[in-house]
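Task 17 of the worksheet. Students: predict the tertiary structure of the chain below and write it out as structure tokens. Keep your answer in the requested format; marks are given for formatting as well as content.
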Amino acid sequence: MPGTFYRPAGHEAEPSIPAAVLIPLIEHGWGFSVLFTQRTADLKTHAGQISFPGGRLESSDTDANAAALRETVEEIGLAASQIEILGQLDPYMTVTGYEITPVVGAVTPPLDLKPDPLEVAEIFEVPLAFLLDPVNHQRHSRVVAEGVRRAYYALPYGDRYIWGATAGMLVNLYEVLTVRAEKS
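Model answer:
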């Protein structure tokens, strides 16, 4: 399911909106964490949801990596010089028509974050070990537009509910790392 494309019935010919997100991995003495944002409640799309920093590709962006870095600087104030791009995961198509390229990046602490109050309600971290444990990868489904049933992942963490595209990208990260570990 992660990395697969989903297009609501009857919308197959509509062009997708290119977007990119940064999956920020932060090294601590105890291991790695992943940084998330909680979107503000008054945004037009995905309001209040947990996400990665990111957004649409703009004409000034040379590629998905550039867009992910630009959006990260704009949304949370993390300097691009603190981010080392490690690679990209499979593109993810959202119900709202975005084709998102997840860009994985290693972030060098210390962090001096400045969230954009118009977009970001909160910034928090979750241990990578929790996110990569398949026991925490819950599968759910719900009916979306035109009565189509859509499966999605959720990774509840305490009072946080990471779900949808964000959770799907994390499961894809798990799959990529698992395949690499099995080949070693």
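Marker's comment: The longest strand covers residues 17-28. The chain has one domain: 17-183.
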